[in-house]
Design brief:
By secondary structure, the protein is an alpha/beta fold. It has a single domain (5-210), classed as Decaprenyl diphosphate synthase-like (Undecaprenyl pyrophosphate synthetase, 3-Layer(aba) Sandwich), CATH 3.40.1180.10. Helix content is 41%, strand content 16%. It has helices at residues 13-19, 27-44, 64-80, 98-111, 127-141, 146-151, 198-210, and strands spanning 5-9, 49-56, 86-90, 118-125, 163-166, 185-188. Helix 4 links the parallel strand 3 (86-90) and strand 4. The longest helix has 18 residues, at 27-44. The chain is globular, with a radius of gyration of 17 Å. The relative contact order is 0.21. The protein binds 3-methylbut-3-enyl trihydrogen diphosphate (IPE) (2 copies) and magnesium ion. Residues 9-11, 53-56, 59, 170, 172, 174 line the site of one 3-methylbut-3-enyl trihydrogen diphosphate.
Length: 217
Amino acid sequence: MTPRHIGFIMDGNGRWATAQGLSRADGYPAGLLALRRVISRCKERGVEAVSVYAFSTENWARPDSEKEAIFKVVDTFNRTYDGDTKITYSGNIAMLPDYLEDSICEIEDRTKDNPGTVLNICFNYGGRDDLLHAAEICFSHGRFSKETFERALASSHLPPLDCVVRTGGEMRLSNFMLYEAAYAELIFLVKNWPDMDETDVDKIIELFEKRKRTFGA
Ligand code: IPE
Ligand code: IPE
Ligand code: MG
């Protein structure tokens, strides 16, 4: 079965740029081109939702120049996107620079009625923060059940996370969708994110389809 929801940890942008003799910041526009290829193939393959990890709560520790490069790429994407995908953001958007918060609200609003595949961009997102936030909501409403808790997670509008793919060779989750990944199939690829293309999506789906999922049974 095709995965309904794939999460991509888009790692290796900086290393890709360094290997090309470019500055690390040049890896992010190249990463955006890869994202467009990956999304377009996911849509063709009928994947319902794609979550991408673009900036973690820990990435504030990066140099200012690198953060600004990432913010600029995302802002340009938001302002120029003219496709037909519904785009949502997960993470603490209010902490971002005003111009970026504005373009995020604007693209979410502009694409909210688009049918088909959802692209969920995890930005200033951390799995632990999201879990604590959901717990806080349940606590303040005085209702703590599996249902109210899951409704309070940033991913509540998405199907169950079937598969997590991390590029760049590291084999860890780095605080990505910790609750949702409980039974996700994990796929680690050596290639850096900017090298991803449509054929990689086909290979990922093929790998996923070969996995035997038992959910503990
Ligand atoms: C991942 O790419 C994307 C972000 C953290 C924004 P990196 O910037 O971590 O690239 P590498 O892993 O250092 O090559
Ligand atoms: C994970 O990559 C975060 C994103 C892809 C946005 P990092 O490069 O920040 O993670 P670590 O430092 O390798 O764990
Ligand atoms: Mg990295």
